[in-house]
Amino acid sequence: MDASNLDAKPVSLTKSALQGILSNYAGIAVLVVAQIAATAATARLISPAWFGAYAAAQFALLLASYFTISTISLGLLRRAELGEKTVGSAITLSLTAATLVMVLMWVFAAQWAAAWKISSATSLVRVLAVALFFTSLASVPIALVRRRLRFGVAAVAETSAQVCGMGTGVTVAVFTHSAIALAIGQVVSGVILFFWASVLARRDLRFGFDRSEGRELLTYGSQLSGLYFGSWAVNAIPGWIAGRSFGAPTLGLYSRASLVINIPVGYLQIGITKVLFPLYGRVRDDIARTKAMLSEGLALATGFTWPVFAFVAGASPVVVNALLGANWHGAIPLLRLCALIACGLFPTGLLTNAAEALGWIRFAAFRLIVLLVLLSAAVGTVELAGLGLNSLLVGVAIAQWLTYAIMLRTFVSRGVVDSRLVYRSHVAHALGSLGAFAIAFGIAELLAGESLVVAIVAELGALTGVCVFIFFARSWFPASEILARRLAEVIPTSNPWFARLRLKPAR
Prior knowledge:
Layout: H1 3-6, H2 13-45, H3 48-67, H4 72-78, H5 86-107, H6 109-116, H7 121-137, H8 139-147, H9 151-176, H10 180-200, H11 211-246, H12 248-283, H13 287-314, H14 316-323, H15 332-357, H16 361-385, H17 389-413, H18 419-446, H19 452-472, H20 478-490, H21 496-501
């Protein structure tokens, strides 16, 4: 199978990128609404202790996912051409690894639960093993769909599968009042995704195995999985300490607080990286285009996420009460710290994705080592001083931001990032984020004695106002200026929205 069978006709990369990102974010919008509804419902049906057990099981799933080497799908995306047996080799590796990992998760579920001192996590780990099996098998077909630049179709498949899974989880939770319902929902999501992805990619699916192709895919996939394993350790350490030192209820508080932030972070990051990763392969030999893509990507990412995360941090009392209920008051300070961590994590993820696509595996590994060293220092300080979970999260935030600074500086020194654009945008976006936090915090304090409905309406109104102001503040907010300029490249001048938004064509 040659590249001509899989690759789409040459099209504008700017148009493909914008259409892909918009498609992904349309799906993300649906997922966010569904996740908010599911979180609000399950938080009132399932106790914090059960959520603690579920968090422990989720960490097992994330750890095991790196050994399924589903990252070989990225090896398909980054290659300019595919051999006759490349896809078949990827499918064989994916099936073999997914089966082995599922069996091992089932066998060692009890030992994992014992390590976290949460015995109820055993059954959850075993159910999630089945979910991981189907999700891993879907990775290759979904990659083939994206390879054709059919980003919208892939987004619909993933979104519908997850929404169905969430709906199933909530329905089962009504009857069981346990986290097993959430695990069952993930199984349903995995099965649907695998089936739909296979149907969409049926023209490109091939079976067979070639040793050299398999070796190359396995080497690249294993390198990425190793890097992602380190990322898992960074995320798991705070949770593990919370579970062992403070018990399942505290772990439940932390898991829900981090979920409120990490789910949108994950969706937003994936929405961009799923589009940029295959595009890096097309421009990697053109330094100027790579530099423009990465620099503008960083500016857009920070400009439209930092203010939102800052607003959520300021409105955390309202957010926690609305999503989780009055019994989750202890999650408020944790939510604010998770938002601070996310503001550093998000751009770091974009740079890491670029490094992987460009083949800078050693540099990505170096970034991970630095982060682990800094995180270990934070953990050691907290343990020796006898501090609590809040102090640990402060240390995690410092470690994350220092790592991002080191990584950004390295990209600048290699000439792959426009330092003037990125530094200028970061200053402007940080100031805008501080303003958003102050507005949300002020409203939460002012309406502390009012009804929850009044507080929610006020915060949503303020958030809408902040978003509108940012979009039209193109003279001083770099992300808005870049977005308007790029949209002008793909929106016809005859379009009435063009005139209303006063978009200026790119110079």
